[in-house]
Amino acid sequence: MDYGKFKYESAVKARESRKNQTQTVVKEIKLRPKIDPHDYGTKKGHVERFLKAGDKVKVTIMFRGREQSRPELGFRLLQRLAGDVEELGFVESQPKQDGRNMIMVIGPHRKKSEAKAHTAHTAQPQSRSVPSPRVAAATPQEAPEPAENEPAADGAAVPGPA
């Protein structure tokens, strides 16, 4: 067998195997223990979007000053977030204190490749074609002729039947 042919076929196999791989991406969201309800909703929306895309989410709660003496507030917040997004993902690592931060990792229920296939499948029926303005301008549209008794648009009288 030809060595060049062997090398080419092994390169093709390697390319095909890379095509089916997905990179594991870990997105990070940072919170504070005294977060406003609206800000919490925004951060939760980001976490949901990441999980729908098939990415893991690392949720970090940063404690500052006196907040460090109340780690249970951060723990409750992480538990609340995990409960809110449990239909999209599961808790991979339980909340644990790491210096001034408390960290928890949430993983998606479906893999990234499945999530891409699902979003492509659901987005296709919603797309619709929009006519191009160039096509509309290229086809001459007939202007309606003014009625016989009405004056023309330029002010000149339209001659009636004689």
Question: What's this entry about, in short?
Answer:
About 40% of the residues lie in helices and about 20% in strands.
Describe this structure in words.
- This protein is α+β, with helices and mostly antiparallel strands and 162 residues long.
- The protein has a domain at 21-110: Translation initiation factor 3 (IF-3), C-terminal domain (Translation Initiation Factor IF3, 2-Layer Sandwich), CATH 3.30.110.10.
- The protein has five helices and four strands.
- The chain has a four-stranded mixed sheet, with helices on one face.
- A hairpin with a 2-residue loop joins strand 3 (89-98) and strand 4.
- The longest helix is centred in the N-terminal third of the chain and has 17 residues, at 3-19.
- The chain is flat.
- The chain starts with a helix and ends in a 24-residue tail after the last helix.
- The model has no long low-confidence stretch (mean pLDDT 82).
Main features:
alpha+beta; Translation Initiation Factor IF3; 5 helices; 19% strand; flat
Output the helix-strand order.
HEHEHEEHH
Tally of extended strands?
A: 4
Q: Architecture of the domain at 21-110, CATH level 2?
A: 2-Layer Sandwich
State the helical fraction.
40-55%
What is the overall shape? flat
CATH class of the domain at 21-110: Alpha Beta
* Nearest-integer average pLDDT: 82
Q: What is the terminal-to-terminal distance?
A: 96 Å
**For the report, how would you describe the main beta sheet?**
4 strands, mixed
| CATH fold group of the domain at 21-110 | Translation Initiation Factor IF3
Oligomer: single chain
How much beta, percentage-wise?
Answer: 15-25%
Q: Output the structural class.
A: alpha+beta
Q: What is the assigned CATH homologous superfamily of the domain at 21-110?
A: Translation initiation factor 3 (IF-3), C-terminal domain
